[in-house]
């Protein structure tokens, strides 16, 4: 169920950004938030990863050399903590139980 909800949210967000949301210039040209790659790219997993999830990664990577480096590092750290917590969520046991057992095991090692 968790994955189904995630896929539906990603699908809706990407569809809206690439085909619906945008602005109209004075000449009548419609400019979408994203490049409009939804139709050819949404049928494969690689398309989802390349054109939706990783499309904006360059902004975070380029932030390291600017005054925004603290925000970029905070963003990456928060995503690491989020991904790390999902590992415990999908393991079948409780998050805190797994975390405590991992710390105790590492301490006794």
Automatic annotation (TrEMBL):
One of its GO terms (biological process) is photosynthesis. Keywords: Membrane, Transmembrane, Transmembrane helix. It comes from the Eukaryota. The chain crosses the membrane at residues 68-90. This is Photosystem I P700 chlorophyll a apoprotein A1. GO terms for cellular component: chloroplast thylakoid membrane. Signal peptide: none annotated. The keyword Transmembrane applies.
